[in-house]
Specification:
The complex is a heterodimer of chains A (211) and B (472). In chain A, β5 and β6 form a beta hairpin. Chain A has 211 residues and is of the alpha/beta class. Chain A has one domain: NagB/RpiA/CoA transferase-like (Rossmann fold, 3-Layer(aba) Sandwich), CATH 3.40.50.10420. Chain A is built from six helices and twelve strands. Chain A has a six-stranded parallel β-sheet, with helices on both faces. Chain A has a four-stranded mixed β-sheet with strand order 8-5-6-9. Chain B has 472 residues and is α/β, with parallel strands linked by helices. Among the domains of chain B are: 245 residues, Rossmann fold; 58 residues, no CATH class. Helix content of chain B is 51%, strand content 10%. The radius of gyration of chain B is 29 Å and the shape is elongated. The chains are: A alpha/beta (211), B alpha/beta (472). At the A-B interface, α1, α5, α6, β9 and β10 of A face α2, α3, α4, β1 and α8 of B. β9 of chain A pairs antiparallel with β9 of chain B.
Chain lengths: 211, 472
């Protein structure tokens, strides 16, 4: 069997024996900058805009609802089951479908919808990144199949960056089978290094920060 | 230098359009990298490199430990792990699974590891459809070419090449606008994603303590590959394992910056096992194939095993004055540029293309930009010395062959054999009853000298056996 054969070759080459512990693991390097919480939302939105995404600041859930309504203009949208979206009243907007738990139905909807609306578990201010953990509340395809993605997130969910994320979630696999970091719209530069947005994922990403 | 290597280099140098394409693309990638790692943008760039090097060194030195830890944790999340020693085993694994599940259509996201083993060709040979979904890789698959660059695979093609290719292969009107070409690929591939039974991806990192694979990309095709089909197969080299999820804070900051000059790529997927209870979508099966394919051959040598630290960012290609002239297809295997010049001889043997380690000015630009601090010039020097040693062995071998061929010829020509015997007997120093120590003329040939230095010859007899036989 190749497993034993390969592990044996590895051990022989390294002069190790089966079951031997790893020695001298370098300590983890996480450097969380001290950044004022108030500066995070503006920083996040500025980064999102720099990536050709669209950033919005809403004072309240109602404002966020109005912001999303203006963006989708009654077109077909599929919203995730994140309680925060319902809390903001977004799931009851005209044209918005939500509460889907059947995978086939969800896939069909996502493949035809104009907008996918999600919340996000976290956002990273320094890179303009959304962090989404797959769960009964958040499906993978809503932020992926429709040509536009709208994420609505409470201000308090914004972290300074990657280091803070991995200090809060030292093992993301404990919480989910899929964590995705989304940094701006889908893009490619594979032909002549010319930047084109919306290759396979959404070409439009809108981030609405509430509070 | 093999004529093939030489021919491709000259072809590339003579192609002005191609020269411009390579120079512009690598120049742009190079400049973008410099911007994102500048000291005022990324204060701790050098510390991050040192940390990344230390972690890779540790992971490789304790590779068996982390592979087993990774395997345990993938299984704990409901995934399965298989080890394969080469391309045949990988293809057999995928084919068996596809057969068992009745799968016919496979979507693939970009993976240099599967390029190593020509996975698509192997699968298609057995009647499966395996579609590359990264735009650049899709173009190359239609054109039947291999990647020109680790991160910009279709760097050598213009929009006009793509227009001709799409028109010919997709039977559509010629389209030269890049945005529209991208939209064409999107709509063709979207149907494939939704219909595929299996998604095959590579991995940028395998995380031991989480049992997770990490995939970094910009287009979203890897997310679709790993989310839409009901089976996800990851194919990754055994060297991709890192100890902890927290180490990603170091590697992710370096990878996209070094590759494309982005602080983070658009999508970073952290995947561990199939869809869990309650989760709405995602694959029902999750398999990880850990591939050796020659990697264990690189492990014994402390210096050269550094080659396995590579995170495939492609920064060394963009920085290399040689790559920027001779391009990706001059290189004899899937990996090009400085990293290709050290990986190819070690994976395929130095004889595969003996000139390869010499196709460098040893300027050190590659080592300077490497995010995990692989000392590429030093490894090139070691490989050069290996090439020379093996050439010397080969030379000696050739001389030996020549001597035996001459001997065989002599044995087939009895007249000449007899004359030669007589000549040798008359020329040999005749020490009565004693042994001959060294033969003057022959002693000038190094291998013969080495042989005769330890051996004396018996004196030549006055009469040969043939003469005695005739006079009996």
């Amino acid at each position: 069997m190749s497993r034993d054969h390969i592990l044996h070759r590895v051990r022989t080459a390294l002069g190790r024996s089966a079951g031997e512990e790893a020695r001298d693991l370098p300590p983890v390097r996480l450097r969380i900058p001290e950044s004022a919480v108030e500066s995070r939302a503006p920083q996040l939105l500025a980064r999102v805009e720099a990536l050709a995404g669209e950033g919005f600041r809403a004072a309240t859930g109602d404002d966020a609802r109005a912001c999303v309504a203006a963006a989708i203009e009654g077109k077909c949208a599929v919203a995730s089951n994140a309680p925060y979206l319902a809390h903001c009243g977004i799931t009851s907007l005209p044209g918005v479908r939500s509460g889907i738990t059947d995978p086939d139905e969800l896939r069909e909807l996502c493949a035809s919808a104009d907008f996918g609306i999600t919340s996000a578990d976290y956002a990273l201010a320094d890179t303009g990144t959304l962090v989404l953990l797959a769960s009964p509340q958040e499906a993978r395809l809503i932020s992926l199949l429709p040509p536009a993605h709208i994420a609505v997130i409470a201000c308090g969910r914004i972290l300074s960056g990657l280091d803070e994320l991995f200090s809060i979630l030292p093992d993301p696999a404990a919480a989910t089978s899929s964590m995705v970091l989304i940094t701006g719209p889908s893009r490619t530069a594979d032909i002549e290094q010319i930047l084109v947005r919306g290759v396979h994922g959404p070409g439009r990403v809108m981030v609405v920060v509430v509070g | 230098m093999s004529t093939e290597f030489e021919r491709k280099i000259h072809e590339t140098l003579a192609d002005a359009k191609l020269q411009l394409a390579i120079y512009t693309a690598t120049g742009r990638l190079k400049a973008k990298r410099v911007e994102t790692v500048a000291p005022d943008v990324l204060l701790d760039y050098q510390e991050l490199r040192a940390q990344a090097h230390a972690i890779k060194k540790h992971a490789i030195e304790n590779l068996d430990h982390y592979l087993e830890e990774f395997e345990r944790n993938v299984e704990a999340h409901g995934g399965k792990v298989a080890y394969c020693k080469d391309g045949t085993e990988v293809a057999d694994f995928v084919l068996a699974l596809a057969k068992e599940r009745g799968a016919r259509l496979i979507v693939k996201s970009k993976s240099m590891t599967t390029e190593e083993v020509d996975l698509n060709e192997r699968l298609e040979h057995h009647g499966l459809e395996s579609v590359e979904t990264d735009l650049g890789e899709y173009i190359l698959q239609l054109a039947h070419e291999r990647p020109y660059h680790i991160v910009a695979p279709a760097l050598h093609m213009t929009r006009y090449d793509v227009a001709d290719l799409f028109a010919r292969r997709l039977h559509i009107a010629r389209e030269v606008v890049i945005e529209k070409q991208t939209a064409i690929a999107r709509s063709v591939l979207r149907q494939k994603f939704l219909a595929a039974d299996i998604g095959i991806s590579g991995a940028n990192f395998l995380v031991a303590d989480s049992g997770a694979v990490v995939i970094v990309e910009n287009e979203g095709n890897a997310r679709l590959t790993t989310s839409a089909p009901r089976i996800h197969i990851v194919i990754a080299g055994i060297e991709k394992v890192i100890p902890r999820a927290q180490d990603l804070a170091t590697f992710l900051k370096l990878l996209a910056r070094s590759a494309t000059g982005q602080p983070l790529s658009v999508y970073t997927s952290f995947l561990s096992g199939p869809r869990r209870t309650g989760e709405i979508d995602g694959p029902e099966e999750f398999h990880v194939v850990l591939l050796d394919n020659g990697r264990t051959r690189l492990l014994p040598d402390r210096g050269k095993r550094e080659s396995l630290y590579c995170i495939r960012c492609g920064a060394c290609l963009n920085a290399c004055p040689v790559y920027r002239k001779i391009g990706g297809h001059s290189f004899p295997w899937v990996y090009s540029g400085p990293i290709g010049a050290i990986l190819t001889p070690q994976f395929m043997g130095v004889a595969h293309e003996p000139a390869l380690p010499f196709a460098s000015s040893l300027c050190g630009a590659c080592a300077e930009v490497c995010p995990v601090k692989i000392d590429i010039p030093k490894i090139l020097l070691e490989l050069r010395s290996e090439v020379k040693k093996s050439e010397a062995r080969e030379k000696q071998h050739r001389l030996e062959k020549l001597a035996f061929r001459a001997f065989a010829w002599l044995m087939r020509h009895p007249r000449i054999y007899e004359l030669a015997g007589r000549a040798a007997a008359s020329m040999a120093p005749s020490e009565e009853g004693g042994w001959i120590r060294g033969v003057p003329g022959l002693m000038n040939i190094p291998p013969v000298r080495a042989w005769l230095s330890q051996r004396d010859l018996p004196p030549a007899p006055a009469k040969s056996f043939r003469e005695m036989w005739r006079r009996r």
